[in-house]
Amino acid sequence: MPRERLIIGTFGDISTRKSPAGRYLARTRYRDWDGHARLVQASGVTAKAADRALKAKLADRDLFQPADTTLTPDSLFSDLVTYWLEDIDLEDRISRTTRNLYERNMRTLVSPAFDNLALREIGVARCDKFIKQLAKISYSRAKQARVVLRLALELAVRHEVLPSNPMEHVSRLYREPHIPNALMAPEVNVTRAAIAQWESAADHTSGPKPDGQLGAIIEVMLGTSARIGEVLAIRRRDLDITSPVPSIRIACTIVSRKGE
What we know:
CATH architecture of the largest domain: Orthogonal Bundle
Distance between the termini: 68 Å
CATH class of the largest domain: Mainly Alpha
Radius of gyration: 30 Å
CATH superfamily of the largest domain: Tyrosine recombinase, N-terminal domain
């Protein structure tokens, strides 16, 4: 009768023999996620030790295998980062600015702590501790790191490299209450005076020479609460100075892209 096929994730009978070197070898066939049964073996100083070593090896053999066989649970996190960025470029769903921001946050905030870890070594406790330690330094950095780390590990789950995403169980971030800093009228007037002095100076030995725009830019920022990139992107058609109440339409911003 034909031998019964193993269920995926299970192994057959274990055979043990003594090698010429005096150590014992235990071996069996294990059916991997792709359906192929492969020979797995381990050695030990005694038959029982070899048997235990083999079973430990089988227990550690993850059922979840990636669609791309170059990435496995034993791959380094740095390999996942490369894989993740390539996947983002392949999907081409987010803007180039967001993509570059993701890469910057990953390289500067997350990679230094995770690059030398195998994917199977990254668990909830490690991720939770990392985010909390980063939050002590900066809430904003912790929030940015949390986003990219979750996205990268989520890709590993979708491609069956990891069984679950540890970031789904990390505790929430809590921001300490803070009072926003705002310029008072005397400080605004000091800023205006400094700009006027800089623009009217005859000699500029260092720094950019004034072009007469900075004062106007500051006044528009004060009057609209718009950010610098939004103010610099205002076009003629965004202005309405004929209405009883003049207005500015904030519809654009300046984008600086890496390498462009």
